Automatic annotation (TrEMBL):
N-terminal signal peptide: none
Matching Gene3D superfamilies: lambda repressor-like DNA-binding domains
Protein name (database record): HTH cro/C1-type domain-containing protein
Parts forming coiled coils: none
The HTH cro/C1-type domain, residue ranges: 42-96
SUPFAM superfamilies: lambda repressor-like DNA-binding domains
InterPro entries associated with the record: Cro/C1-type_HTH, Lambda_DNA-bd_dom_sf
Record Pfam families: HTH_3 (PF01381)
Organism: Candidatus Chisholmbacteria bacterium RIFCSPHIGHO2_01_FULL_49_18
Length: 98
C-alpha cells in the first residue's frame, strides 16, 4: 500500500476559486447559478423542517423524483411548481437571474 505522505489535499472551495479564474468554467458555473439558488433553498428549508423528499413531494402533489431533480439541479422547474414547493415548505424561494 502506498503512503499518503506525498499527497496533498485541496479543499473544494479552494479548487472552485482556482477554477473560477478560467473564463470557460466561470461562464458555465454562472449559467447554473439559478439552479444552485433553487436547490440550496429547497434543501435548506426541507431539512430545517425535518421533511423527507417523499413528504415534500406529497405536500406539493408530485412525485419524489421531481423533488430529487430540483435538489440535484437536473430540472428547469416552472414558476407554478416553485410556488407549490414554497407553499409546502412555508417559505419563499428567491432566484436572481442576471
Amino acid at each position: 500500500m502506498k503512503s499518503r505522505k506525498n499527497k496533498s489535499f485541496i479543499s473544494a472551495e479552494s479548487l472552485h476559486q482556482r477554477w473560477m479564474k478560467d473564463p470557460d468554467y466561470r461562464r458555465e458555473y454562472t449559467k447554473l447559478e439559478p439552479e444552485f439558488q433553487i436547490a440550496r433553498q429547497i434543501i435548506g428549508a426541507r431539512i430545517k423542517q425535518k421533511m423527507t423528499q417523499e413528504e415534500l413531494a406529497e405536500k406539493v402533489g408530485t412525485g419524489q423524483a421531481v423533488i430529487s431533480r430540483l435538489e440535484g439541479m437536473n430540472a428547469k422547474p416552472s414558476i407554478s411548481l416553485l410556488q407549490r414547493v414554497a407553499r409546502a415548505l412555508e417559505t419563499k424561494i428567491k432566484v436572481t437571474i442576471g
